[in-house]
Each structure stands twice: as C-alpha cells, then as structure tokens.
C-alpha cells in the first residue's frame, strides 16, 4: 500500500512470522536407538541425526563411553566344559530395568554352543580350546543402560567313546546295535562317536574274545563297505 503526505511517499510492509522447530545446537537422544542422537541446525529449522562413536551411547543428549547406570554384571567368569558334552550356564546381571538382552561383541562361542538373548549359554561344544569372549548386556529402560565383561571359555577334550541309538553294556565292551538291513535293499548307516579330537577315523577291528562265544559272525557282510571318515556303512547285501 502507498500513503501520501505532504508530497512524501511511505511504503507499508507485511511480515510473516516463521516458527522454528528447535533451538539451534540442541542435542537429544534418538528414542529406540541408543547409539544415535539428533542435533538442531543453526537456523533452528530442522533436526540432523548423527551417530555416536563405537562403544559409545547417547545419554541426555551426549555420547558417553560408560553408561552402566545401576546395571551390574554378577558373572565374573565362565565354567569350563568338555567337547561333545552338554553345557549350560546362565549369565547373571542385576539393577537397571528388566528384561535384559545379551550379546557377544568380541570373539565367538565354539561350534555347538549358542547364547540366547536372555543370557543362557547352552548346547554341546565341538572343538576343544580356549575361547576369549566379551559380552554386553542391555536393560529395557527408554534410554537403555549397558555393561560389559570379558571371560575365557575353556573347552577340554573329553574321552573318546562310541555311541549310537541303541547301546548295550557287555561289561568288557560296549555293543552298539545298528539299524537292521534287508537283502537287496540299499543300506546306509552313520557311525556315531563323541569326544576326542575330530576328525574321527574308523576301521574294522578284531572282536573281544569274551564276545566271540555269543556272536559267531563278525565283519561286514559282502556288499557293504566302511567309509573311514566321518564313518559310515553303506551298500546292498545280496544274501
């Protein structure tokens, strides 16, 4: 609009207010993702999402390297185990907000073992050895607290033994009954063993003298062959 007074012209302006979405430089943690935070841009018009450094977590808008809060891991070491033998151990923690979630952040469990999310190590370890591990546990708070600890899991070599689905103890020897075979029908059966150092190798051996009086026929029937490793019997018997 133009206004005129004593020969002078005045110009009027209309301003539109702009509402900022945040205060410039403000930092807040991202809900549901403790490793990220948001920072307000310098013009106050938008949020930018950024990531904390490795092994850091957002707390009150800041990335910190230690955010255990009142979360305390009670487990200090892991009990030793034997290969091919059942193993089970519960990691313990207190404080914070239950339920807790566990993970391995360094190292790996031996094949045959798993770590459940609630901190149970279970299974039957395969290869013996010493396994260096680092665990981390989170609680269920809106901004999760977390704590870590390191331990070594030692798996020893258990005695080598032959096993199977049907086993009889003959005092001086163990008798394993293999699946029945039918003449002219293809046959296959895996031999089973536990412990020792893998791989395992198989061969036919002379029978114990104490059993020869009870079992008169020894050795594989014609038509069957033994695979030494990993150990299997296969073929077809003609009679």
For the sheet with most strands, the description reads:
4 strands, mixed
Give the averaged pLDDT, no decimals.
Answer: 87
So, the CATH homologous superfamily of the largest domain?
Answer: Cadherins
Structural class: mainly beta
How many separate structural domains?
3
Stretches with pLDDT under 50, minimum 5 residues: 1-11
What is the H-and-E element order? EEEEEEEEEEEEEEEEEEEEEEE
- The CATH topology annotation of the largest domain reads as Immunoglobulin-like
Strand-residue proportion: 35-45%
> How many strands appear in the DSSP assignment?
23
Q: CATH class of the largest domain, anyone?
A: Mainly Beta
Which range best describes the helical content: under 10%, 10-25%, 25-40%, 40-55%, 55-70% or over 70%? under 10%
Please name the CATH architecture of the largest domain: Sandwich
Spatial gap, N to C terminus: 115 Å
Lateral arrangement of strands in the main beta sheet? 9-16-15-12
Radius of gyration: 35 Å
- Global morphology: elongated
- Please tally the helical runs, counting DSSP H or I stretches of 4 or more residues: 0
Please explain how this structure is put together:
This protein has 239 residues and is mainly β. The protein has three domains: 17-64, no CATH class; 72-156, Immunoglobulin-like (Sandwich); 159-239, no CATH class. Helix content is 0%, strand content 41%. The strands form nine sheets. Strands 9-16-15-12 form a four-stranded mixed beta sheet, with no helix packed on it. A hairpin with a 4-residue loop joins strand 22 and strand 23. It is elongated, with a radius of gyration of 35 Å. The model is unreliable at 1-11 (pLDDT under 50).
């Amino acid at each position: 609009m133009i206004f005129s007074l004593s020969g002078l012209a005045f110009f009027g302006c209309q301003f539109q207010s702009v509402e900022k979405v945040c205060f410039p430089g403000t930092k807040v943690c991202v809900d549901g993702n403790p490793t990220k935070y948001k920072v307000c841009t310098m013009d106050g018009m938008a949020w930018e999402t950024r990531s904390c450094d490795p092994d850091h977590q957002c707390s009150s808008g800041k990335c910190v390297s230690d955010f255990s809060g009142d979360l305390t891991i009670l487990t200090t070491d892991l009990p030793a185990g034997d290969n091919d033998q059942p193993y089970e151990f519960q990691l313990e923690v207190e404080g914070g907000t239950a339920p807790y979630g566990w993970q391995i952040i360094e190292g790996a469990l031996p094949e045959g073992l798993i770590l459940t999310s609630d901190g149970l190590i279970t299974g039957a370890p395969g290869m013996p050895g010493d396994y260096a591990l680092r665990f981390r546990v989170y609680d269920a708070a809106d901004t999760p607290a977390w704590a870590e600890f390191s331990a070594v899991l030692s798996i020893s070599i258990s005695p080598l033994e032959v096993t199977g689905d049907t086993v009889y103890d003959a005092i001086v020897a163990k008798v394993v009954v293999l699946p029945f075979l039918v003449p002219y029908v293809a046959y296959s059966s895996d031999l089973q063993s536990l412990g020792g150092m893998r791989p395992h190798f198989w061969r036919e051996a002379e029978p114990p003298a104490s059993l020869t009086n009870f079992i008169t026929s020894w050795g594989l029937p014609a038509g069957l062959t033994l695979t030494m490793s990993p150990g299997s019997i296969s073929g077809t018997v003609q009679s």
